[in-house]
Amino acid sequence: MPKIIPIKELKDTAKISEMCHENDGPIYVTKNGYGDMVLMSIESYEEIHRKEQIYKDLEIAESDILAGRTKPAGTMLREIKAKYGL
């Protein structure tokens, strides 16, 4: 369940920091009853960013497959071994 707090609670920064680290997801901040900001720990942000990068890489890989820019695994392994002298 998402954590939602009013903007006036941002005055207690130590409490906000603690909440950010206790919650895996973001904390939604409201102003006058409407969504205004989102807060999260650096760890949570970096995890989201890592997942986003994985999705982008998978999208590139899928487009390569659809465009036929692939090689058989055995061929690629031989090329890598030759390139790095393995």
Task: Please describe what this structure looks like.
- The protein has 86 residues and is α+β, with helices and mostly antiparallel strands.
- It has two domains: 3-40, YefM-like fold (3-Layer(aba) Sandwich), CATH 3.40.1620; 43-84.
- 55% of the residues lie in helices and 17% in strands.
- It has three helices and three strands; from the N terminus they run E-H-E-E-H-H.
- The protein has helices at residues 13-22, 42-66, 73-84; strands at 3-6, 27-31, 34-39.
- Strands 1-2-3 form a three-stranded mixed β-sheet, with no helix packed on it.
- A hairpin with a 2-residue loop joins strand 2 and strand 3 (34-39).
- The longest helix has 25 residues, at 42-66.
- The chain is elongated and about 60 Å long.
- The mean pLDDT is 94.
Keywords:
2 domains; about 90 residues; single chain; alpha+beta; YefM-like fold; three-stranded mixed sheet; Antitoxin_Phd/YefM
SSE layout:
Elements: E1 3-6, H1 13-22, E2 27-31, E3 34-39, H2 42-66, H3 73-84
Parallel strand pairs: 1-2
Antiparallel strand pairs: 2-3
Major sheet: order of its strands?
1-2-3
Q: What are the secondary-structure elements, in order, as H or E?
A: EHEEHH
Low-confidence stretches: none
Which percent bin holds the helix content?
40-55%
What is the terminal separation in angstroms? 51 Å
Q: Classify the secondary structure makeup into a structural class.
A: alpha+beta
Beta-sheet strand percentage?
15-25%
- Total tally of structural domains: 2
User: Mean pLDDT across all residues, rounded?
Assistant: 94
The description of the largest β-sheet is: 3 strands, mixed
- The total of beta strands comes to 3
Protein name: Antitoxin
Family: Belongs to the phD/YefM antitoxin family.
Organism: Oribacterium parvum ACB1
InterPro entries: Antitoxin_Phd/YefM, YefM-like_sf
